[in-house]
Amino acid sequence: MFLRKSGTWVLIFLVISPTIFCKSMSAPDPRWAAKKRRMSEKVRNMFYHAYDNYMTYAFPHDELKPLTRTHTDSLVELGNLKLERLPQEYNGSALTLIESLSSLVIMRNNTEFERAVLWLSDNLTFDVDARINLFECNIRVLGGLVSAHILATDSTNRLVQGNYKNQLLILAHDLGRRFLPAFDTPTGMPYAWLNLKYGVMENETTETSTSGCGSLILEMGALSRLTGDPRFESAALRALRKLWSMRSSLNLLGTTLDVETGEWLEYSSGIGAGFDSFYEYLIKAHILFGRDEFWRMFQSAYLGVQKYFRHGPWYHEADMRTGHATYWQLTSLQAFWPGLQVLVGDITAANSSHREFFSLWERFGVLPERYLLDRQMLHPTEKYYPLRPELAESTFYLYHATKDPWFLEVGESIVDSLNLYTKVEGGFASIRDVTTMQLEDHQHSFFLAETCKYLYLLFDDSFLVDGNYIFTTEGHPLPVLSDWHERLPEAYIPSNWTFVKSERQAKRTSAMSRQVCPATALEYGHGIEQQVQSACHVTDVRNDHRCLVDEDCGVDAITCRRRSCSMAGYCGLWLSI
Ligand code: DMJ
Fold first, then answer.
1. Radius of gyration of the chain (CA)
2. Ligand 1 center to residue 497 CA distance, Å?
3. Which of 104, 268, 436, 529 has a 20 to 30 Å separation from 246 between CA atoms?
4. Are 170 and 126 contacting, i.e. CB atoms less than 8 angstroms apart?
5. Nearest CA to ligand 1 atom 3
6. Any atom of ligand 1 within 6 Å of the Cβ of 215
7. Which letter, b or e, does each residue of 183-204 get, where b requires 16 or more Cβ atoms within 10 Å of its Cβ?
8. How far is CA 351 from CA 215, 346, 347, in A?
9. What 8-state DSSP symbol labels residue 385?
10. Is 390 a catalytic residue?
């Protein structure tokens, strides 16, 4: 609460007496401890209400239809699959169960985790004549399996001795191999769709999105590290490098492209749908694999976003070639951005954007899918809220970065809204229209993989005490291990793929011990010392640094602190004097 109202006095107090401030913030306050206990219990109940109903009415199909208490096989139905392709006996891929695995571990339900792992080991198969979306299948299924495999084999011995023989990794490896034909294109960038049994079908669309092509490296990289089979990481890396090479001189990327020709199809650029996880995976790949290449890409991409899309706390879209604004629209997917900004240490910007997203949440009761910033109104056809996690995710990151109890109140308000508007007897239902709160018969698997998980971790982070994890874009935890750092796939000596690194070999390392905060760097290129802009840098509105109000000033590249307008009308770091 205190920090949120970022007034001059607060800043001066911080500058003068950081120790006192830190002490008072870190002292355990019994009020918050009680609230955390109560709220984590409430979230746990939400999770099991969703999970139990899925298990009763939809399992082993993919997702629950909570109003009619039936199921949908959404993994293969995503993108209007022609259903006649599915064999009669198709029973789904137990998508929601796979997506729930890591949440079960985080909520310390080892018994149910083991039951789920053993069921999947015996029943899951990918040998199905079905067209799937590579991105969705990667983040939900491959990510869910790889993460659960790591959780099943870490030193906490969650599974009864002898019951687990890498079954999830074997399944993940099978799925990874089925992905590979999608990458067989002249550009190395993968088709968005492929058939699990037969690979890429004739006349398949060659169009994909930036996030679809550029957010594969965490799951496929982890699969390579775990199996010793370098093909997955190599394919994802090659695609990412090619995608990055297609950026404009402003370091912006378009929305969609052709994987055969390598040409952009849609030039509008942004941070929401079609882009979000692309940025997320650059910084998280750097944290997970420790390669500077990812950091350099991220830093340039982040600067591009802050320069060309940011408008106060909001982010609009802009043409990748000119930087001129295209769509002044807010999408609920963008609400992940403050969480990403916490990872790079840009807390001030994260805080201000998060506040705006939350004010929209408060106004509508939940976050509408699309809001027209220029007209201050809802998008006429995208008024829905499908139980998305992004605001809860950013709230989780901001709370743990700042320990500001205000974020606990935000979390509580999100939980209350979800229970009030979306909870039904048969689970949790999406909202079709936020103006009427009319419900839709769909409980997306990411509600269990992400929404409940981030809300739970906001109030109970005990899972994170013993290990450093990054979360995939679908909320599946992957441990940050020193053994995975700076090891190129080419350096692998192909070995028996069932080889799995033991926990003892892999020393844990801290994400914060990596240089994830965008401190300024000095680069020595061609003998000339050059100062590199930090990722947090935002230029002043006017080139001559004149200003009328604080909003005319940007963020200082050296200190990452917000500049303010002096009485004489110039932007600067006046408070630090
Ligand atoms: C999730 O499936 C993932 O977070 C993805 O990256 C985009 N958002 C959805 C949930 O909103």
1. 23
2. 30
3. 529
4. no
5. 474
6. no
7. bebebbbbbbbbbbeeebeeeb
8. 25, 9, 6
9. B
10. yes
pLDDT digits (tens, 9 = 90+) for 383-411: 999 999 999 999 999 999 999 999 999 99
What Cα–Cα distance (Å) separates residue 241 from each residue in 234, 326, 518?
10, 26, 22
The tokens of 462 are what? 């005990």
Q: Give strand pairing partners of 268.
A: 319
Q: Is the bond into 368 cis (omega within 30 degrees of 0)?
A: no
C-alpha 74 – ligand 1 centre gap (Å): 14
276 is catalytic: yes
User: Is residue 517 a contact partner of residue 321, using CB atoms and an 8 Å limit?
Assistant: no
Distance (Å, rounded) from C-alpha 64 to C-alpha 82?
20
Render pLDDT for 341-384 as a digit per residue (tens, 0 to 9). Answer: 999 999 999 999 999 999 999 999 999 999 999 899 999 999 99
Ligand 1: centre distance to CA 274 (Å): 11
Distance of CA 165 to the CA centre of its chain: 30
Residues 243-281 have pLDDT tens digits of: 999 999 999 999 999 999 999 999 999 999 999 999 999
Report whether 11 contacts 18 (CB < 8 A).
no
Distance CA 480, CA 509 (A): 6
Q: Is 209 in the pocket of ligand 1 (CB under 6 A)?
A: no
Task: Kindly state the tokens that stand for 36.
Answer: 């955390």
The rounded mean pLDDT for the chain is: 85
Catalytic residue from among 136, 229, 460, 540 = 136
Amino acid identity, position 311: H
Would you call the peptide bond into 60 cis, given omega within 30 degrees of 0 as the criterion? yes
Among 135, 271, 277, 369, name the best residue to mutate to test ligand 1's pocket (greatest count of ligand atoms within 8 A of Cβ). 277
Which helix or strand (DSSP H or E) is residue 479 part of?
Answer: strand 477-479
Identity (one letter) of the amino acid at 155? S
Q: Pull the structure tokens for residue 297.
A: 């890409």
Is 266 an annotated catalytic residue?
no
Q: Is residue 545 left, alpha or beta, with left meaning phi > 0 and alpha meaning psi from -120 to 50? A: left
